[in-house]
Amino acid sequence: MTESGYTAHMCLIVFDWHPGSEQWLTLSANRDEVFYRPTRPLQPWPQHPGLFAGQDLEKGGTWLGLTDKGRWAALTNVRVPGAGPQDPRSRGELVLNYLTSDLAPEAWAEQLDTAEYAPFNLLTGTSDTLCYTTNYPDKASRILAPGRYGLSNAQLNTPWPKVRLALQQLAAAPAPEALTTLLSHREPFADNELPHTGVSELWERLLSAQFIRAPGYGTRCSTGLSIRGHLARLEEITWNEEGEAAGQALFTIPLTF
User: Fold this and answer.
1) Which residue of 63, 108, 116, 150 has the fewest CB atoms within a 10 Å radius of its CB?
2) 3-class DSSP assignment, residue 134
3) pTM for the full predicted model
4) Cβ atoms within 10 A of the Cβ of 253, count?
5) Rounded Cα gap, residues 78 and 8, in angstroms
6) Per DSSP, what are the bridge partners of residue 247?
7) CATH number at 12-254
8) Domain locations in the chain as residue ranges
9) Which burial class, exposed, middle or buried, applies to 7 when counting CB atoms under 10 A from its CB (0-12, 13-18, 19+)?
10) In whole angstroms, what is the distance from residue 193 CA to residue 212 CA?
11) At 217, is the secondary structure helix, strand, or coil?
């Protein structure tokens, strides 16, 4: 365990959401986690045909995924040390449960009992609807209008420095193949720009970078997702503790919806 006292699901997501347009989703994300936690890289799941995601091998869930039906979801935690139930369920099961459901995003979120989980942010989408759900400080869920959004370990569009930079990076309209390395700023931001989330000043500084390198903890993978019409391009780069690329996966997925 790191000094920060928590493990985390993907900690930075930026996306352009434009339902009804030819290019209706462009997304870049970094997942940050302790390095000892076993993980399977992005791949098809034999037990769920048509589902593409990495997998947390400790609890069985995932942090970001897509199905060939055009359902997609992504997750971050909310950084509030000590908040949530004493023995929470794995947040990664939220993404998996949504992706394997047939319910519309808003209907699925409505029936969700969020009290069993530590604080989280969750995006659940289809080709025409995107829902944002959080359980901190209370359960709240809403449909997102078209636009550009950034999400880290606070509420949606909280202007942490790495989120503001991510929105600028995405606004530059990167090519689909550049999405996996978009969120690559490795330097911490100035102390006067940092949030105060209850971790130590040292960890607040380390966690402020887009691409995190810290003792035993850091950016484990970067994902790029681009969906144009009925064709998705989903790519992942996995990183080792030295911050070097250790693997890559790329899938072009025809969608039916």
Assistant:
1) 116
2) strand
3) 0.96
4) 18
5) 9
6) 238
7) 3.60.60.10
8) 12-254
9) middle
10) 17
11) strand
Number of neighbouring beta carbons within 10 Å of residue 204: 19
Q: For residue 10, what pLDDT is reported?
A: 66
- The pLDDT score that the predictor gives to residue 128 is 98
For residue 230, the 8-state DSSP code is T
Contact between 112 and 98 (Cβ < 8 Å): no
Residue type, 244: E
Question: H helices of the chain, where?
Answer: 92-99, 105-110, 161-171, 201-206
Region 193-212: what's the mean pLDDT?
96
Pairing of strands 23-34, 12-17: antiparallel
Q: What angle do CA 105, 111, 117 make, to 5 degrees?
A: 95
Beta-sheet pairing, 51-56 with 12-17: unpaired
CA-angle at 115, arms to 111 and 120, nearest 5°: 90
Q: Token pair of 120, please? A: 């989280």
Q: How many CB atoms lie within 10 A of CB 169?
A: 20
Per-residue DSSP letter, 198: S
Calculate mean pLDDT across residues 184-208.
96
Contact between residue 143 and residue 133 where contact means Cβ atoms under 8 Å apart: no
Q: How big is the chain, counted in residues?
A: 257
Q: In the numeric block, which tokens belong to residue 187? A: 């330097």
